[in-house]
Amino acid sequence: MSLNIKFGVSTWLWTSPFQTDTVSLFPKIKEMGYDVVEIPVEDPSLIDVGAVKEALAQYDLKPVICGAFGTSRDLTHDDPAFHQTSFNYIESCLEICYELGAGFLAGPMYSAVGKARLVSSEQKKIEWERAVLNLTKVCHMADSRGLKIALEPLNRFETDLINTAEDVVKLVKDINHPAAKIMLDGFHMNIEEPDIERAIRLAGSDLIHLQVSENYRGTPGTGQTRWDAYKRALEAINYEGVISIESFTPEIKELAGAVCIWRPLVPSQDGFAREGLQFLKQWNN
Q1: How far apart (Å, rounded) are the C-alpha atoms in residues 126 and 152?
Q2: Alpha helices (runs of H) in the chain, residue ranges in sequence order
Q3: 203 alpha-carbon distance from chain centroid
Q4: Does the predicted model carry a pTM greater than 0.85?
Q5: CA-to-CA distance for 178 and 203, rounded, in angstroms?
Q6: Which residues contact 235 (CB under 8 A, 6 or more apart)?
Q7: CA atoms within 13 A on the CB side of 217
Q8: Distances (CA, A) of 60 to 51, 57, 162
Q9: Which of 60, 127, 182, 200 could disulfide-link to 233, CB 3.0 to 4.6 Å?
Q10: Which residues are in the Xylose isomerase-like TIM barrel domain (predicted)?
């Protein structure tokens, strides 16, 4: 049975940061057969939203907006100044979502990426409660614009707070706001989840976005990923969102360093996007 889904690709596959002239990728993305472009917003000031909206319409692409949470964007930091920096950034991203007609902002917005430490249970509880409190505020910000947020677990090397579907389901339950939803990423699940099918089923109807690549962050269909498990689980929860390919180019050194890609994963980033989509369309038949 085919899933009623659309396929997308992140512009991180080719470049970083996304800025207005990154729309030059849109005709290629459309020509390859994608319906959706995933736009990672590292610096909102680099983006002319009107120009991006025009390009999306011109090439008949739908947007998904993802946040980037570096060290200064941390809703669980001991210093409340970091919370305000995060709120300001998230608000800018939500405005971009609203203007471009994207229904949600996705990402690991509970904490700074790379904040992975062994902390006491007391400190963990403090940071969890901060995440719940501050993400509830974010949910109100999103809801006022008719939007949702999609919270993403990361692997243990990138965060110590939310690593699994079970973690993020508990976080969403504790936030207890209708705008709080879930995004899962196959790369992180491959590290953290004993059973990807169970993880997706656990997220259930709260799953509103899914990112995929291979277990080694390469082209879908070339690695050890249990694509049969994805299919069974997504059918079971009647998933009707977007499945986006997310990986990165080693050519952008700052980005490659942040995600620890020290070698080319493919001969060509265009080949990655084209062959990955071909595989996913065949998988969905």
Answers
A1: 20
A2: 26-32, 49-58, 80-100, 121-143, 165-175, 186-192, 196-203, 227-236, 253-258, 269-283
A3: 15
A4: yes
A5: 14
A6: 1, 3
A7: 18
A8: 14, 5, 35
A9: 200
A10: 28-282
Please state, in angstroms and rounded to a whole number, the distance separating the CA atoms of residues 242 and 24: 22
Q: DSSP character for 115?
A: B
3-class secondary-structure state, position 203: helix
Characterise 125 by phi-psi region: left (phi > 0), alpha (psi -120 to 50), beta (else).
alpha
Closest CA to 94 of 145, 38, 50, 45: 145
Q: Are 70 and 111 in contact (CB under 8 A)?
A: no
In degrees, rounded to 5, the angle at the alpha carbon of residue 76 between the alpha carbons of residues 70 and 81 is: 75
Instruction: Return d(Cα 285, Cα 225) in angstroms, integer.
Output: 18
Phi-psi category of residue 60: left, alpha or beta, with phi > 0 → left and psi -120 to 50 → alpha: left
The label of the residue with tokens 């001969």 reads: 267
Residue with tokens 């389901």: 169
Domains of the chain: 6-283 (3.20.20.150)
Q: How many CB atoms lie within 10 A of CB 187?
A: 21
